[in-house]
Amino acid sequence: MDSAAPTDRADAELAALLDIARRDGVPELLSRLNARVPHRYTAIYQLVGDTLKCQHLIDKTGAVQTEFLAEVPLRDSFCQFVIRDGIFLTENSAFDHRLDGHPYQGIVVSYHAIPLVTRAGVLYGTLCHLDTVACALSDPELDLLKEVAGALPNLLEPSIA
User: Fold this and answer.
1) Phi, psi (deg, nearest 5) at residue 38
2) How far is the CA of 26 from the CAs of 19, 48, 70, 148, 151, in angstroms?
3) What does the pLDDT look like over 55-95, one tens digit per residue?
4) Which residue, among 55, 130, 118, has the nearest Cα to 88 in the 3D structure?
5) CATH superfamily of 5-156
6) What pTM, to 2 d.p., does this model score?
7) C-alpha dist (Å) from residue 110 to 41, 89, 113, 129, 149
């Protein structure tokens, strides 16, 4: 078996997703990412001062964005751990002792996120898959999320790149 095949496939998937974002917009890219995972939501949060503001949200159910996802103080978010550690993953926050006492523990149950950082090293926010039920994220999907997060800031606002 050719050991380069998985990498070539991942590169092709990333290129296709970035082409979709350029042609159809970031929400369509997020929709495609969301279709690949069991999570109900895929979102981009922008850090504005000490608040994370949802810039884009895909909901598999097509429901209107719920208020608890629209804006979150950094100190109350799971994004604070993404920003601090460079990644944050939990399949079930209710049983994740790193989150003991956190206001969203057991409410946002599944959360897999990567920071969005521009080429200039400026933190934009986070890219995440999340849900109110437990969800796993496969290694290939995590790798794709990382790759997309690396390229996405340049597509969100060219002025921040």
Assistant:
1) -80, -15
2) 10, 19, 17, 11, 12
3) 999 999 988 666 767 899 999 999 999 999 999 999 999 99
4) 130
5) GAF domain (3.30.450.40)
6) 0.89
7) 10, 8, 10, 8, 18
Task: State both tokens at 55.
Answer: 């810039």
Q: Which two tokens stand for residue 21?
A: 């974002």
What are the residue ranges spanned by the domains of the chain?
Answer: 5-156
**pLDDT recorded at residue 135:** 97
Residue 62, phi-psi category: left (phi > 0), alpha (psi -120 to 50), beta (remainder):
left
Token look-up 């380069």 returns 4
First to last CA, the chain: 39
Best CA proximity match to 6, nearest among 159, 124, 147, 122: 147
For residues 63 and 125, what is the distance between their CA atoms, to the nearest angstrom? Answer: 24
- The dihedrals phi and psi of 101, each to the nearest 5 degrees, come to 85, -5
